[in-house]
Amino acid sequence: MGKDGQFDVSATFDERRGYVGTHPELRAPVTALSLGGLRRKVEAAMLPEEVIVMLSLDKAARLERDRRRLTGRTRPGFAGTVGLGIPRSREQAEA
Domain residue spans in the chain? Predict the structure, then answer.
């Protein structure tokens, strides 16, 4: 573990398993389908310690993150918000 409770985890991307995080203090590599999920799983594995997880992405992980950003898909947290009365544009908000 680094200074100030910072926990640096090396992350890569494997097409069969998703994102894979490794660190000597983890019992086994941690896998997740997203970087956010990977961060949460590492935080849970480090309980009861209070840690700040810093993911160090290798080239494969950076390329996959960027590919996902550029596909134009909406982020999971924003799916379905249009049906909740949130305006799509400034014109709709002013109407």
Answer: 1-63
pTM score, whole prediction: 0.67
Record the tokens describing residue 89, joined without a space.
């544009």
pLDDT the model gives residue 57? 95
Cα–Cα distances (Å) from 15 to 50, 64, 82, 93, in that order, read 31, 9, 32, 41
Q: What is the phi-psi region of residue 45: left when phi exceeds 0, alpha when psi lies from -120 to 50, beta otherwise? A: alpha
Please indicate whether residue 18 or residue 48 has the higher confidence score (pLDDT).
18
Mean pLDDT of the chain: 81
Element (H, E) at 63: helix 59-70
Whole-number Å distance between alpha carbons of 39 and 19: 10
CATH fold for the domain made of 1-63: TTHA1013/TTHA0281-like (3.30.2390)
